[in-house]
Amino acid sequence: MSVAAVDAGEHQPHAKYERLIAIAKSIPAADTIVVHPCDESSLRGVVEATDAGIIKPTLVGPAAKISSAAAAHNIDISRFEIMDTAHSEAAAAKAVELIHAGKGEMLMKGSLHTDELMRSVTAKTGLRTARRISHVFVMDVPAYADTVFITDAAINIAPDLDCKRDIVQNAIDLYTQAGFGVLPKVAILSAVETVTSKIPSTIDAAALCKMADRGQITGGLLDGPLAFDNAVDTEAARIKGIKSEVAGRAQILVVPDLESGNMLAKNLSYFAKADGAGIVLGARVPIVLTSRADSLRARIASCAVATLYAHARRHRAATAAA
Description:
CATH architecture of the domain at 129-282: 3-Layer(aba) Sandwich
Shape: globular
CATH topology of the domain at 129-282: Isopropylmalate Dehydrogenase
CATH superfamily of the domain at 129-282: Isopropylmalate Dehydrogenase
Number of helices: 12
Strand content: 15-25%
CATH class of the domain at 129-282: Alpha Beta
Radius of gyration: 19 Å
Strand order of the largest sheet: 3-2-1-4-11-10-5-6-9-7-8
Number of strands: 11
Helix content: 40-55%
Structural class: alpha/beta
Largest sheet: 11 strands, mixed
């Protein structure tokens, strides 16, 4: 069953995430390298995702520190392999090495800082691809019919047009390959819905839409610039006279910069009681990127999204090799 098949009409809190997790349970668990899980929240996330049959983890970090944190919070990690490293930076480097060696299909951030992990990922010997690395929040907003993606709110601070092209393509690929649906509706957000030189993001939005027309972005239906209300509310779009297949029904929201995206995602989380899973794309493997403030459900949902994406990549690789 696809994620899209269970989204329509879901308005109960957490309903979309529960269905997403259920679908991830139905496919093989993904071999997961967990980087520096040295606190309660990261260890509980690993245990719960493992018990749900979503991941098969290998823990990488200071063994004594990991074991001490587990013991302090009565968390049983005896069944997990632990690869000992001196500190968090060494754990990130070792995790990248394990991915290169084919020991894992995805990475999961533990209690180290995001920039520590991403330094190893983006190093010359890291996990870069031709695509720019970007982040997607996969949001379960109770008042919105569809699961909604917000990108990029965590990696690229002030992306230029070329970077935004990759941000959009990464999000479309995740949406289509992880089973959320086909031809997602992509709203390129700005403060207004008209193009003006006074607001550079409106020019980028128009350029991105033309890039989609020319085949430089594929797999999605783009429109922009759109203000947030026009992107997610059909009545707001109607009042403004916007006739578009995307306006009012957006499934992917592309923000102008990290600051606006981060504030939008957190506003939805705290004001609209939305759940927010986080995943990094554009590297050789998907990366589960969670925050210390994330709920356990959000951590498991992040694993579920990454596992669905890893499964799709595994299937494509097997098909190509056949």
